[in-house]
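Example record

The entry below shows one chain as it appears in the dataset: sequence first, then C-alpha cells.
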Amino acid sequence: MDRFDALLKEASTHIAAASSMPALNELRVTYLGKNSAIIQALAGLRNLEGEAKKEAGARVNEVRTQLDHQIRQKQEVLEAEALAAQLAREAIDVTLPARPIRQGAVHPLMQVAEEALAIFASMGFRLADGPDIEDEYHNFTALNIPETHPARQLHDTFYLQGLQYLLRTHTSPVQIRAMKAGEPPFSLVSFGRTYRSDWDATHTPMFHQIEGLVVGKDIAMAHLKGCLQEFVSRFFGVSNVPIRLRPHYFPFTEPSAELDVQCQRDGKHLKVGEGDSWMELLGCGMVHPAVLHHAGVPEGYQGFAFGMGVERLAMVKYGIGDLRAFFENDVRWLEGYGAPAQRAPAIPERR
C-alpha cells in the first residue's frame, strides 16, 4: 500500500508541473498506460486471495481513478490557457479607427433624372413605363412619323429581327401605350433609355429621355408654357427663369416649339436665368390630332407634350462639356460629379 501512496504522490507532482499537452499525454501513458505500474498491479491481483486481494484491488482502482481525474483537470487547464493565448494573439483593438471605406455616389444622370421626376411628381404627373424594344407602329406610325422620315432609315435606327422590331429612338411610344391602356384625362411622365446610331462629343448611341404628356379638355399652349416655366425654375433653382418658345417642327406635335432658357456664358461656365444669351433645352408642342387618334383618345380632348434629354439637363446644370464622360466609368470623374446617395430624391412610383 505504501508503494501506491508513493506512486500517487509522484504522479500528482508531475501532473501538476506539466506545461503542455504533449507532456501531459506522456504522463498519461506513463501512469495509466498498459505498461504502467497501475496496470501491472492489477494484473498481480490474481496472485492474492481473500481480504488481501480485495483491499489491494480497491486501493489500485482508487489510485487509478484519482490519477485519471487529475489528468483530466490538468487537460482542461491547459486547453483554457491555450485558448486564452490564442485570443490574445488574435485580439482586435476596436478603439482604433476603422479602415476607410470608399463611399459611392449617385451618378449625375440618375441624380438629374430623380430631381426632374420628383418635380413633375409634385405637379401631379404619374410615372409611366414601356419596353426598350418597340415595333415600328408604336415608335413611328402612331406618332405621325411618315415612312419617308430619315429617322426610319437604317443609318439612324437600330433594327432587330428582320426590321420588324427596333430599339426605341425616343420614349414617346410610352405615351401611346399609356393612352391606349387608359381613359383620359392623362398627366404622365416617362423616363428611360433610348437608342440612335450616333457617337460624338454631343451624341451617344444610348441616352436617356424624360417626356411628359397632358391630355384633357380645354388644354392650351399657355398650360404647356406654364408647366415648363415652373419646371425650369425649380430645376435650376432660379425664380422665374426667362424662357421663350421658338417655332419648330416635330411630326407628333402641332404647333411645335423648342424651349430656350436665358443664360450667360463665361468661358466654360454657364449661368441660367441671367445674361443676354439663349440656349435650347427641350422640344414641346400640342399633341397632333393624328397621334390622339392612333392612341384611341375620344373627340373633344387635346393636350401637350414635351421631351428632354437627361444628359443635356445634366451638362447644363453641372457644366459638363463632353457627353461621352457619362459612360466612360472614370471613377475620378464620378467622384467629382456624383451626388451623395442620401441627397437623391425618390423617384415617383411607376404604373
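Notes for this example: The mean pLDDT is 86. The chain is about 40% helix and 20% strand.
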